[in-house]
Fold:
Amino acid sequence: MEVIHLKYPHQLESTEGPYSLALGFFDGVHRGHQAVINSAIATAKEKGYKSAVMTFDPHPSIVLGGRNEKVFYITPLQQKLDTLSTLDIDTVFVVNFTSDFAKLSPEAFVKHFIRDLNVKHVTAGFDYSFGAFGKGDMELMRQLGGESFGVTVVDKYTDVSEKISSTRIRKALKDGDMEEARMLLGRAFEVPGIVVHGDKRGRTLGFPTANVQHMEGCFIPATGVYAVKILVQNEWFDGVCNVGYKPTFNNPDHKQLSIEVHIFNFDKNIYGEEVVVGWYHRIRSEKKFNGIDELVAQIEKDKQAAIEYLNSHA
Structure:
């Protein structure tokens, strides 16, 4: 999969294609997004085009909304690209979303980012908008396409009656409902990170943990204890994870979030390793214990609960 980064105005020395292009921000690359992308891939195969995805970075709200707070992504850009690479896509265009880009009229967007890229078919969701102030909709895309490129509009993708959306996934993550998140995504929710040195307290308790410093901008699920899998050196291992503020050892004002994974049947030194944590089931909320013995007993219960869940569900 080729990744091409574009700015406005862009200057590509050569444009390949022709492309069947899926358009969208695609945060999460969830089942609804996959329906759009798979439609574009199917058109590419039918017409003999190259398959392509166009996404944007950073999130438009950062540029348009004047927001000071951080935006947390279900899939930060690199993770989004990693997920897209598992699909049958030839090219991904990553458009730098800037103030100048945001000012483009729908007509100018189509000229510079559809026609000039040799796109012969555009696929997007029914509610996709483009151009300044989101004035362009998919009906306008059809009109602007005319005879020069085809357009496919993918209907609302639902489960039962509700649209599958990034908003629903974020709510599930906030609630710690990893089963709901997994159903909407079509895979387990994952957080990439690096194993760093922690306080090493887990070793003294008999439950050594990998302290995972998550990739900046990742959406982290609700605090609590989870059944997880962790990818280490290209191999998945089962584990139990605590995400939170360790209230048994820290004062209530401590606001440094930690992600600590006790990996089952594992004794390697993995400091500095890039890992991925896959979240499957929330076992309980984080709580303060009245002593080490009470904490250790609970960790053992959590471990057994994680083993049972992962053996039967994942």
